[in-house]
Design a protein that fits this description.
Helix content: over 70%
Largest sheet: none
Radius of gyration: 22 Å
Number of domains: 2
Strand content: under 5%
Structural class: mainly alpha
């Protein structure tokens, strides 16, 4: 699998070609949708080759046909096939990883299969429950499952949100353009920071745990941030996937902030159908915020619990993960020397900066966004060039 992704100049050449083609027939809906479907198919081919594209097309055909039938048997068949295909690829390296170590597993999965599988299951369930009508146009349905901005890291698309946009004419206001550009630039900076930390952070003590947590967040939040921005430039609105997850004061709060589209998918299509009850997130957050000390303690406990979970998911073996966690609570675990800090000062500075930005109040972040939105287009262009230079330097 090649590196034809958001930090690669070849991707932006591809995206420029897509925008150029879109400019010729952006308001001719059938041609526009067909063009974007073709571009998405080409994107999958460039990323993973013919095998990845064929698996995607198989999923599109099966779920398209099952959705047209709209029967309990067809939805059951669709769910079974989707889970079966996904599981076959998922278990390929399961014995070689600790607790199914998340990152190695993702590396053997066909590109994008997690996201279009979840989207396909939700589509068939929604059709069966009559939340949405079956999509009779194969091209439209193909674009829904293959929409290339979401292929790398999501978010998980819902047919109820995305399909209606296929029938709306292209419109991007100046404010929406600014929002999209801000999301893209912010996402690229996060991806670049994550890559820089991976290559230049060599500490093996408690600071490494925090650095790893920031890196993981920057990777996923960065990719989905870019996806939201380029989708908006194409005329589509897709859900924001992260909401300062390390500010969560409980595990439930964390799930409401981390990979939001996936956890809401689990809630709506797994947890509630199996008998779970929908909880009021708003009341829980208000209750947590009523006492600052309680919320601060909850934030620290939740953050460190998540950090330990990242250790378990990323460790080569379970024993190694347990050993790393035990060392965290050992007073004799060696402290950081001045020489080590000097050798890692750039990475430590970026980690600290990203954590501070992450913990900023919502009002402060909104204020910064509004300032960017109000800037002249020339200044925004210069900001884009500056981010490109930062990405080039850090990656």
């Amino acid at each position: 699998m090649n590196t034809f992704l958001f930090t690669d100049i070849s991707f932006w050449g591809f995206f420029a070609f897509v925008l150029l083609g879109l400019s010729f027939f952006y308001n001719r809906l059938p041609i526009r949708n067909g063009f974007l479907f073709l571009c998405s198919a080409v994107f999958y081919f460039l990323i993973g080759g013919l095998s990845v594209l064929l698996i995607l097309l198989f999923s599109i055909i099966i779920n398209y046909l099952c959705g047209l039938i709209r029967h309990w048997f067809s939805v059951t068949l669709a769910i079974t096939i989707n889970i079966l295909v996904y599981t076959i690829f998922l278990i390929q390296e399961f014995p070689q990883t600790a607790l199914g170590s998340a990152l190695p597993l993702l590396s053997v999965l066909p590109f994008g299969i997690s996201f279009y599988t979840f989207s396909a299951i939700s589509y068939n369930v929604d059709v069966y429950k009559r939340r949405i009508k079956p999509v009779r146009n194969f091209i439209d349905f193909g674009l829904y499952l293959s929409f290339f901005p979401t292929a790398a890291a999501g978010p998980v698309l819902r047919a109820t949100d995305f399909i209606p946009q296929l029938h709306k004419y292209y419109q991007v206001t100046s404010r929406e353009f600014s929002i999209a550009l801000y999301s893209i630039l912010g996402g690229l900076v996060k991806i670049a920071v994550a890559d820089f930390i991976a290559l230049n952070f060599n500490l093996e003590n408690w600071l490494a745990i925090y650095g790893s947590a920031i890196r993981i967040y920057c990777i996923f939040s960065g990719y989905t941030g870019v996806a939201v921005g380029i989708a908006m430039l194409l005329g589509f609105k897709i859900p924001v996937n992260f909401n300062s997850p390390y500010k969560a004061a409980s595990l439930t709060d964390f799930c409401n902030r981390w990979y939001i589209s996936f956890f809401t998918w689990l809630r709506d299509y797994v947890y509630i159908p199996l008998g779970g009850k929908q909880r009021s997130t708003r009341n829980e957050q208000q209750g947590a915020g009523s006492n600052f000390l309680i919320r601060f303690a909850g934030l620290l406990i939740t953050f460190h619990f998540i950090c330990f979970m990242w250790i378990i998911l990323r460790a080569d073996t379970f024993d190694k993960a347990v050993l790393t966690i035990q060392q965290f609570f050992t007073p004799t675990w060696r402290m950081v020397t001045l020489a080590e800090i000097k050798d890692n000062v750039a990475a430590l500075s970026l980690i600290a900066a990203m954590l501070i930005i992450h913990l900023l109040p919502v009002r402060a972040k909104d204020f910064c966004r509004e300032i960017f939105y109000s800037l002249p287009i020339v200044v925004k262009f210069l900001a884009a060039l500056a981010v490109a230079a930062v990405v080039y330097f850090l990656v």
